[in-house]
Specification:
48% helix, eight-stranded mixed sheet, 701 residues, nine-stranded parallel sheet, single chain
């Protein structure tokens, strides 16, 4: 045993060390890969937007952690000392209501054996009301209780058989039965599941708080999982309950909780035995704008929580009392995890709106903001994986590496803080589980908020509820919910691309309108040429200038021609010159199409030169005869980089227009540090819109 204990300690230290090494590796990678040019990919607005969101989210998380530590190490220990001084005979009498439905015999034996032992530790007899699936199950429970207390001297047992209408109906009937017993006014009613195992001393350590806090309506405890059948599911629950622990501690500092778990919670009898408590528990409904009115299938713990919150009761979390949650996993692990998340997050979303509607006066300012944050956090959490996906799709490998290093640096630190001081042991497997669960849960929450009426409870007799109706009514409701789901995700992607400066919706719309207006004004529609079909291949690191210049030189006649540049980085080792009228060079958007100019000759006047074949004459009359018109450049970024680090490229312009009329430059990013980004000579009627930097402009008549 000693060797096993030592090995467990060594293994635990190794796990912590491995995760901290991952964090250090991520930090080193983040430092080595930092690159101002890659950060410039986001632009100033993108950096500010992402930075502000990051500061907000990390500050909120840090506040939650600080509050939880204050509660755990300062506030609650003082309450515990006061609670432990209350004599056993001064504790209120307790009643336990335990609905159980076809649980495995070994689970039933563990659960009710501990209940009988807890009853023997109290000065007052424990009233135990069990509502099960059948008389046979009740007989098995009675046998377990008598194996501990043969005469049931410490237990007042009441057994009922469920009507088959679900857990809510069974609990409501049990509460009404308890209300007919004329229990003492100071009694406490416990609601717990038939697969929840109390630890020794649970009741003795929880009941004193009802004496300490007269306004407290209920309390709940910490949980640890016992999982049979799946290692991954077990570690996921350990992670989830560790996250729940610090969040509950933080909120309990304000004497509120986010949920009174159905696993085990204790209620003041004046609340639990109130007629409206059982009525709402049995039939809790929501009137949704899309699905109409429907009843709740699961989420009894959220219903009891909302009932107390609405009436202004305080609630507490007891962090030093643990209840074991027993789970048996069979069949598809992914399906079970998905169904559990659908149920958990559905219960959360169905109740958060009406709780927010109570206002901070009832909920308390901190918890009221926590409820608001629940509706925001699943969008902000998707920013990191969304940005990573965009970088991978666009081929921005260095930026993707930076994001991955950021994840490796920060997530192990989060896990270390979450598991600090927990009985659950931190393991390297928690890192991928944490990322997968965090990101997938956001998608499920977004889907669930559009499908609140769709409910399923797989491990309670495979119950399900749908308010979609039938026929055309169902088709319309389901179609609207799917459309809203897809449109929300699409809108999020657009906003994320906007933040990352990969899209400029306002500029794109303005450019589209301008281009369409120009196209309508032309008698002949332009010929569309895709540059990628002519050897201009982005992101290959090879020179594309010769292919692009050859394509332009091959254009004959005076008919309008539009050359569409592809998304990605196009390398130019030589300047490009346009000498014909009616030419359109169009990229796919600033920072999506990037012309990377590798300058090797300091005498080069500009990267893009637009002028007639003949050199301009000095006399204006002759100059007017040597003009080109209808040149339109839009939708790309032009960057300049010298092949020789000693060369000075500050004197090299980005775009030169000479003897050009009736043309436009729109939606361009000219990354030029000099005042020669845009040079205009002998030009007339040239429209310049959304060209950055706007100050880098030089005009010569």
């Amino acid at each position: 045993m000693t060797r096993l204990f030592r090995w467990q300690n060594i293994s635990s230290y190794l796990n912590w060390f491995a995760l901290l090494c991952l964090s250090a590796f991520g930090f080193i990678g983040f430092y080595l890969l930092r690159n101002p040019e890659q950060l410039d990919l986001l632009g100033i607005s993108g950096l500010i937007s992402m930075g502000l969101i990051g500061i907000w989210r990390w500050s909120w998380w840090a506040l939650q952690v600080i509050r939880s530590r204050i509660y755990l190490h300062w506030v609650f220990p003082r309450w515990r000392k006061q609670a432990d001084r209350i004599p056993l005979d001064k504790l209120p009498p307790v009643c336990l209501l335990v609905p159980t439905y076809k649980e495995k015999p070994w689970i039933t034996e563990r659960v009710f054996r501990v209940i009988a032992q807890e009853a023997q530790s109290l000065s007052h007899p424990l009233t135990l009301l069990v509502t099960s699936s059948s008389d046979e199950e009740n007989t098995a429970i009675l046998k377990v209780l008598k194996s501990v207390d043969p005469e049931l001297s410490c237990i007042r047992l009441i057994q009922m058989v469920q009507t088959g209408e679900g857990k809510r109906k069974a609990m409501a009937d049990g509460l009404r039965e308890l209300a007919r017993l004329n229990l003492p006014q100071n009694a406490v009613v416990g609601l717990m599941d038939g697969d929840s195992e109390l630890t020794p001393g649970t009741l003795r350590r929880c009941l004193p708080f009802f004496r300490l806090f007269p306004k407290m309506g209920a309390l709940t405890t910490d949980e640890l999982p016992i999982v049979e059948g799946s290692y991954l599911f077990s570690e996921w629950l350990h992670l989830r309950l560790s996250q729940r622990h610090y969040q509950m501690c933080s909120v309990s500092l304000s004497q509120k909780v986010m949920c009174l778990t159905g696993r085990f919670s204790l209620f003041r009898a004046e609340a639990a035995l109130h007629p409206t408590f059982a009525d709402q528990l049995e039939l809790d409904t929501l009137d949704d704008w899309l699905w109409g009115q429907f009843k709740f299938l699961s989420g009894d713990d959220k219903t009891t929580w909302y009932w107390l919150l609405r009436r202004g009761y305080d609630m507490l979390y007891i962090p030093d009392v643990i209840v074991y949650s027993i789970e048996t996993i069979s069949g598809s692990l992914m399906d079970r995890a998905y169904q559990n998340m659908r149920r958990w997050y559905g219960n959360m979303l169905r109740n958060s709106d009406r709780a927010i509607g109570l206002g901070p006066g009832k909920a308390g300012w901190f918890m009221w903001y926590c409820l608001l944050d629940q509706r925001i956090s699943y969008w902000t959490t998707l920013i990191t994986p969304g940005s990573l996906s965009i970088c991978l799709v666009q081929g921005y490998w260095l930026a993707a590496g930076l994001i991955l290093c950021w994840i490796l640096c920060t997530r192990p630190i989060i896990l270390t803080i979450i598991f600090w001081g927990r009985q659950s042991r931190l393991k390297p497997i928690h890192l991928p589980v944490f990322l997968i669960a965090q990101w997938s849960s956001c998608i499920i929450k977004i889907w669930t908020q559009m499908n609140l009426a769709q409910q399923k409870w797989s491990n309670r007799g495979n119950q399900s509820i749908s308010a979609a109706g039938s026929g055309w009514e169902r088709l319309v409701k389901v179609s609207v919910s799917r459309f809203l789901y897809v449109s929300q995700l699409f809108g999020f992607v657009i906003i994320l691309c906007w933040f990352a400066s990969l899209l400029s919706p306002l500029q794109d719309v303005a450019g589209l309108w301008s281009n369409s207006s120009w196209a309508m004004s032309q008698s002949v529609p332009p010929q569309i040429i895709e540059a990628i079909d002519h050897g201009i291949i982005p992101n290959d690191g090879k020179d594309d200038a010769k292919s692009l210049q050859a394509l332009i030189n091959r254009l004959s006649g005076e008919d309008p021609v539009q050359i569409n540049l592809p998304i990605g980085e196009i390398d130019l080792f030589y300047p490009i010159e346009i000498n014909r009228s009616h030419t359109i060079i169009k990229g796919q958007g600033m920072r999506r199409t990037i012309l990377q100019a590798h300058i090797s000759e300091t005498e080069t006047e500009a990267v893009l030169v637009i002028r007639p074949h003949e050199h301009p004459l000095t006399e204006k009359a002759e100059s007017d005869q040597n003009q080109i018109q209808d040149i339109h450049l839009s939708g790309f970024t032009l960057r300049e980089k010298s092949l020789n680090s000693t060369e000075n490229i500050s004197a090299i312009g980005s775009i030169l227009l000479e003897n050009v009329v009736k043309s436009s430059l729109k939606n361009l990013d000219l990354s030029n540090s000099s005042n020669r980004a845009l040079i205009l000579r002998n030009t007339e009627d040239v429209t310049v819109e959304y060209v950055l930097p706007e100050t880098a402009f030089k005009k010569k008549e």
